[in-house]
Design a protein that fits this description.
318 residues; alpha+beta; 2 domains; 5-stranded mixed β-sheet; 9 helices; 5 strands; rod-shaped
Length: 318
């Protein structure tokens, strides 16, 4: 048996290393690259699927963030507010409304609101005008005695002033367009007062149902009512009203009776003066011309211009 103690001891040492080309650093770099590419393609997808209005809203937001903060709205796409968290869910199939559509809707809403506000102010102005004319009638010795023949009311067309006949106090000579002297005074006073407001005027002549002996083929109540309306227009102009304020002069014969239960009642013989509101004025102007001739965005005058203070200080004329 050999002696094991005489064998040489061999020690094997294994060197570890040389992993520079086989380490894990490249994996981190590759992961960063893939992440960047995913972000890039995600950005491209978002840009391709986002509505044009949203893109413009986002661009405008970064250019003027304070403007968006103060404007309010449902999202960036309609140029609204940064405080509401931007647009809607990206899974939706349609983008937000374009800014141009939103602006158009807002413009229409604004015009509608302006129109409603103007009509409210205009009606209030006509109510004030009605009160001032009533006061003018009470303060004028010449008009006060005829106040039962001067009827004022607000209609859908504007402020209506009707001068009606009484049994013993007609406005015109019988079957004629010749004005009585006191009718001239009434029309001149009213003409001077109405000249202080910007509203246009419409005049209509009315008769009772009594017919001329010549019948419908000859001179009739149609011609008589038209002549009386035009005679009233001339007298109002003589009293100081500008002629251009007259928009319409018509004769209605007995087609619109004041007292339909009694067609021969003297009150059916009357002159109707209407201070037209803007809606009725535009409707009359459009009857004979295209709608484009009248601007829908006409500047709305303030209340004090509709009923100037000068009326309250008008003095009765001689």
């Amino acid at each position: 048996m050999s002696d094991d103690s005489s064998r040489p001891i061999v020690i094997k040492r294994i060197k570890k290393g040389g992993g520079a080309a086989h380490g894990g650093a490249w994996k981190i770099a590759y992961a960063d690259f893939v992440t960047a590419m995913m972000a890039f393609f995600l950005l491209m997808w978002l840009l391709g699927s986002t509505a044009k209005g949203d893109l413009e809203g986002i661009a405008d937001f970064f250019q003027n963030p304070l403007t968006f903060e103060a404007s309010g709205g449902s999202g960036v796409g309609d140029a609204s507010s940064i405080l509401k968290g931007g647009g809607e869910d990206l899974t939706r199939t349609a983008g937000q409304v374009k800014r141009g559509d939103v602006d158009s809707n807002r413009k229409q809403l604004t015009l509608k609101q302006q129109k409603m506000e103007f009509e409210r102010r205009e009606r209030a102005a006509l109510e004030q005008l009605k009160g001032r004319i009533e006061k003018l009638i009470e303060d004028s010795p010449q008009l006060r005695q005829f106040k039962n023949q001067l009827l004022l009311d607000i209609t859908s067309e504007g402020l209506r002033i009707q001068i009606v006949d009484e049994q013993n106090r007609p406005m015109f000579d019988l079957a004629s367009d010749q004005l009585k002297p006191y009718t001239r005074d009434i029309l001149r006073e009213i003409g001077a007062a109405l000249n202080e407001v910007p509203n246009r005027i419409s005049l209509a002549g009315h008769t009772d149902a009594a017919q001329f002996s010549g019948g419908a083929k000859g001179f009739s109540n149609w011609e008589l009512s038209a002549n009386r309306a035009n005679a009233s227009r001339r007298e109002m102009v003589t009293g100081g009203m500008d002629d251009f304020k007259i928009l319409r002069v018509v004769g209605l014969s007995s087609s619109v009776l004041f007292d339909p239960n009694d067609p021969l009642n003297p009150v059916n013989r009357r002159i109707s003066i209407v201070v037209l509101n803007k809606r009725t004025e535009m409707s009359i102007l459009q009857e004979e011309g295209p709608e484009s001739d009248v601007s829908a965005e006409e500047t709305l005058p303030p209340l004090e211009q509709l009923v100037p203070q000068a009326i309250s200080g008008s003095q009765p004329g001689g």
